[in-house]
Design the sequence.
């Protein structure tokens, strides 16, 4: 099991909660014939986020994968045209959350706390959040 977060292209994502969650579900279906380990096909903003992120959180797969299998920051990135889904080790959850959010703000991409509170944050500050009595995954 992993601690999962998502950064996304805010221009492609819907700004209503249920529509966003439906869009997210489609994005992470991973059914396209696309190399989800290669960052070359994502947006410039997501690519910029990725390039900075992997300096301290190296990928475990793909063309930029690390050889250091003992690195606790090694993470699994699934890169789509409009999203990057990241699976972190639970032991690094707090740090991963903080760094992912900070870099999302810096690179003007959206942030979705998949394994946290389910907060959906757009670069302009708009936030879609779920209530504690109804987690985001219960919106389906």
Sequence:
């Amino acid at each position: 099991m992993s601690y999962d977060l998502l950064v996304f292209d805010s221009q492609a994502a819907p700004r209503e909660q249920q529509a966003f969650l439906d869009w997210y579900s489609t994005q992470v279906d991973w059914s396209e014939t696309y190399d989800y380990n290669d960052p070359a096909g994502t947006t410039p903003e997501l690519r910029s986020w990725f390039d900075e992120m992997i300096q301290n959180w190296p990928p475990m797969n793909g063309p930029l994968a690390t050889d250091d299998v003992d690195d606790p920051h090694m993470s699994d990135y699934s890169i789509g045209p409009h999203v990057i889904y990241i699976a972190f080790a639970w032991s690094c959850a707090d740090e991963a959350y903080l760094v992912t959010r900070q870099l999302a703000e810096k690179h003007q991409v959206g942030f979705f706390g998949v394994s946290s509170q389910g907060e959906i944050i757009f670069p302009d500050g708009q936030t879609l959040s779920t209530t504690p009595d109804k987690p985001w995954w219960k919106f389906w």
User: Anything to note?
Assistant: The two ends are 22 Å apart (CA to CA). Helices lie at 17-27, 44-53, 93-106.
